[in-house]
Amino acid sequence: MSSINLNLLVCGFILSILVLVNTQTVHRRFEYKYSFKPPYLAQKDGSVPFWEYGGNAIASSENVRLAPSLRSQKGAIWAKNPINFDWWEVDIMFKVTGRGRIGADGLAFWYTTTRGDYTGDVFGSSDRWNGLGIIFDSFDNDNKHNNPYIMAVLNDGTKVFDHKSDGSQQLLSGCLRDFRNKPFPTRARIEYYMNTLTVYFHNGMTNNEADYELCFRSENVILPRGGLFGLSAATGGLADDHDVIHFLTTSLHSTQQQGAGQQMSADEQQRLAQEYQEYQQKLQQQKDDYKKEHPDEVRDKDEFEDWFESDGQREFRQIWQGVMSLQDTLRDLNKKVDEVIGKQTNSLSLLSAVYSHTQGQPLQPVQPGQQPAQIPGLPIGRHDWDALVTNNQLMINTIAELKGFIIEVSRKSDALIAAGGGAAAGAGAINPQFLSEMRDSITQVKQAVAGVAQRLTVAPQVAAPSQLNCPNVSCVSFTGLLVVIASQLTIMFFYSLYKERKEAQAKKFF
Ligand SMILES: [Ca+2]
Ligand SMILES: [Ca+2]
Q1: pLDDT for the residue 398
Q2: Closest by alpha carbon to 410, among 327, 492, 352, 334?
Q3: Most buried pick, 75, 350, 435, 465, via CB within 10 A?
Q4: Count of Cβ atoms closer than 10 Å to residue 430 Cβ
Q5: Ligand number, closest to the Cα atom of 146
C-alpha cells in the first residue's frame, strides 16, 4: 500500500516538473545592438557599430584584435549601451595565438555596471569592477601548472584581483582548458538565466558547431541589472595575439515575461524593426561604395587570397584532414558497436524470455513500480550456443570426410590384395612365406578400417544439434586413426617395392 502511495507521489512530482518546464519555455531573441560579427565587423572609418574600443585594440572587418603579440599591450571593446533585459546568452568566438609554448596574459569577458578603464590592471580592464568577469588566464603566475584556465570572478566593486595566485582564492568557479593555438577558433558560451550562470567551452579542435562542453554551472548568482558587456585582453613579458571574431548576444525570456513584453512594446518593436532596416541599408550602401572605390583591392582579397597556401599550411591541412577522417571513422565504429551491443542485449533478453517460457513459467508483463520478474540465468549464453552449433557442424563435416577417405582406402586395399594374390601365383621365385605374411597383415588392416568406418557412421546422428551432450559412443581417437593410415601406407610401399623387383626379375628371363 505504501509503495503505491510512493508511486503516486513520484508521478505527481514528475508531472509537476513537466508542467513547470512547459510553462517556462525560454524565448530567445538575437540582440544585434549588443553583438558584432564579420564580415564588415568594423566599418570604413574603423568604428564598430554600437561598440567602442580603445587602448591597443584594433578592429578590422574580420575581427577585433584586443591585444597584439607585443610586450605589455592592453586593449578592450565595450558595448555603448547597458542591456535592457535580465537574462542573456553570449557566444564569443576568439583565437589566442602565439609562437611561444607559453603565452600571456589572457582575455576577459565583462558584465559590469560601468565601463572599465583601458589602462586597467586586470587583463586590459579595471580592477575593483562591479559585476562579473569571465577570465581566460593564459599565464601561470602561481606556478601550479594549472593554466590556461577559465574562471568566473564576481566582484562588488571592492575586491582587488590577486594576480599572484591567478585568482584561485577569489573565483566563483572555473575549468582547466587550453584555448591557445587551436586549429579552429575557440568559443565560449556564457549563459545567465534565472540566476544560474553556465559557461560552455568549444576547444577549437573541430569546426563543428555542436562541440561545446560544459565548463561550469553555478546557481544563485546575483548580478546587477542593466550592466555593460565588454571584452579586454593584455600581454606581459610574453605575448599572444588576442583576437575576437564574434560576440553574439541573445536575450532570454520566460513565457510570462514574453507576454508582458509583447503587450508593452508593439510600438517599440516597429521602431526597432525600422531602425534595423535603416542600419542594413546603410551597411549595404557602404559595402557598395567601398567596392566602387577599391575595385582592385576587393578583387585581390576575394579572389586571390585563398588560392595559395604555404608548405606548412598544406602539411597541416593534410594532417588535419587525416585526423578528421580518422575521427569520423571512430565515431562510425562507436555507433556500430553500440548498435551491435543493443541487438545483442535484445536477443539475449528474448532468448531468456523464451527459455523461461519453455521452462513452464508464463511470460509476465512488467508492472509499473514493480521490479521486473527475475528471469533465471541460462546455463549457456547466446555466444556459447552459436559456437556450439558451429563446432557441431564442423565436426559432422570432418567426420563425413574421414569416412569417405577410409572407405576409399579400404577399397584400394581390397584391390591390392586381389592383385597381390594373382601376382604371387605367377612368381615362384619369391619367398611364398613372405607373401602370405603380407596378405595376412593387409587383411588385418582391412578389418580394422572396416570396423572404424562402421563406428563412424553412427557418430553424426548422435551429434545432432538438438542434443547438446557429447555423444556417448566411444569414437576412435585421432592418434589411432593416424596409426592405421600410416601402417596402410607402409604396406603399400613394401608391396610396390616387391612388385618392382618381381617385374625386374621377369625381364631377366625374357
Ligand atoms: Ca595568470
Ligand atoms: Ca596558475
Answers
A1: 72
A2: 492
A3: 75
A4: 15
A5: 2
How many Å apart are CA 393 and CA 389, to the nearest integer?
A: 6
Q: How far apart are CA 415 and CA 413, in angstroms?
A: 5
Where does the pLDDT of residue 290 fall: very low under 50, low under 70, confident under 90, or very high at 90 and above?
confident
pLDDT level of residue 469 (50, 70, 90 thresholds)? very low
Residue with cell 593534410: 318
Among residues 373, 442, 451, 453, the alpha carbon closest in space to that of 414 is found at: 442
Percent pLDDT > 70 in the chain is 70
Ligand nearest to the CA of 137: 1
Q: What CATH number belongs to 25-262?
A: 2.60.120.200
Residues 210-226: pLDDT tens digits?
A: 899 999 999 999 999 99
Residues 234-263: b if buried by 16+ CB within 10 A, e if exposed: bbbebbbbbbbbbbbbbbbbbeebeeebee
**Of the spans 12-16, 463-467, 493-497, 504-508, which averages the highest pLDDT?**
493-497
124 CA → ligand 1 middle, Å: 13
**Cα separation values, 222 from 198, 293, 466, Å:** 13, 50, 72
Q: Residue 135: what pLDDT?
A: 98
Asked if residue 216 lies in contact with residue 199, where contact means CB atoms within 8 angstroms, the answer is: yes
Three-class SS of residue 244? strand
C-alpha 224 to ligand 2 mean position (Å): 29
Q: 148-162, 264-278, 328-342, 469-483: lowest mean pLDDT where?
A: 469-483
pLDDT tens per residue, range 24-75: 689 999 999 999 999 999 999 999 999 999 999 999 999 999 999 999 999 9
Whole-number Å distance, alpha carbon 109 to ligand 1 midpoint, is 15
Is the pTM higher than 0.70? The answer reads no
User: How far is the centre of ligand 2, averaged over its atoms, from the C-alpha of 70 (Å)?
Assistant: 22
Kindly report the number of other CB atoms within 10 A of residue 166's CB atom.
24
Polymer length in residues for the chain: 510
Domain boundaries, the chain: 25-262, 351-380, 382-509
Q: 50 CA distance to ligand 1 centroid (A)? A: 31
Query: How far is the centre of ligand 2, averaged over its atoms, from the C-alpha of 191 (Å)?
Result: 25
Strand residues in 194-337 grouped as ranges (E): 196-202, 212-218, 228-234, 241-253
What is the distance in A from the centroid of ligand 1 to the CA of 140? 5
Q: Would you say residue 425 has pLDDT above 50? A: no
Cα(237) to ligand 1 centroid in Å equals: 12
- Span 482-508, mean pLDDT? 71
Report the amino acid identity of residue 203: N
Counting ligands in written order, the one closest to the CA of 135 is 1
> Are β-strands 64-67 and 241-253 bridged in parallel, bridged antiparallel, or unpaired?
antiparallel
Whole-number Å distance, alpha carbon 93 to ligand 1 midpoint, is: 21
| Ligand showing the shortest atom-to-Cα distance for residue 236 | 1
What is the 59 CA–ligand 1 centroid distance (Å)? 25
Q: How far is the CA of 129 from the centre of ligand 1 (A)?
A: 18
- 57 and 75 in contact (C-beta within 8 Å)? yes
